[in-house]
User: What shape does this take?
Amino acid sequence: MSNLQNRCFCLFGNPVSHSLSPVIHKIFSKQINIKYFYSTILTPKKSLSFFLKKFFSQENNVGANVTLPFKKSVIKYVDFLSDRAKISESINTLKKIDKKFLVGDNTDGIGILYDLKRLNFLKKNFNILVIGAGGASYGIIPYLMYNMNKVYVYNRTHYKSYLLVKKFSNVGEIFCLKKNELKNYNFNLIINATSSGIYGQIPDISSSIISENVYCYDLYFKKIGYTPFLQWCKKHGSLHVQDGIGMLVSQAAYSCLLWNKKLPNIENSLKSLKNSIKI
Ligand code: ATR
Assistant: This one.
């Protein structure tokens, strides 16, 4: 038996009860033929450090994912950052090395890029609107800026989008917009990177930015039906709406690669996941 067998991984987040990551990693484990375990840990907002220490003190616990609201705050607890985590200043994947050091990485960017290409939602010279300026936005934005795309960011709290845009302004063309400015632009792709969907809400923006040819993508997804944001986009005429289930599988696959040195087949895994949750 290889020493890769029987290691444990988990997801730190709050909330985590909705997470499909345990199911996804079960599919991966079977597919790459390496047995590993994956669980969720509901982490109280002020106790991340304690929960990290406790989990990683066990020898077999060698990696984790980090989700809302810890993607940025976890940075202070790691020993090393990958280039991807450095550029996005946020972490979604942890790996224990040499039995004691934690490396922080971020696979959200590569995950969304893979998914947008898979869906044919991303073309050269696109004007992309990203709604939200939290950890998820930091993870994906540097990857959206390639291929001469222009990225516009709107966030409910304007100062946070200002800081985000400032950080990435030397990477490519990126602009910060206020709510009343949105209607002045023609966006090709609108990405909801807020956590509003988890609470059954949608970002408060004008529907005038939606039309039939605008691609609408929600990082969030629901097991059944459309997310509130995608329902709203459809209602206002978009013919191209997709939720983040493909990105979820893609970013998880790249975490799996980091931990197991094997990249699962993303398309097949997505099919298996949809079958297992009956989407
Ligand atoms: P994540 O790691 O998922 O990005 P986060 O860092 O907590 O989570 O960020 C959540 C993002 O969703 C923020 O941009 C937040 O806006 P604020 O900065 O104004 O708080 C946004 N958000 C959450 N609920 C929202 C809602 N109902 N409408 C609009 N934006 C919302």
Summary: The chain has nine helices and twelve strands. The longest strand covers residues 7-13. The chain has a mean pLDDT of 95.
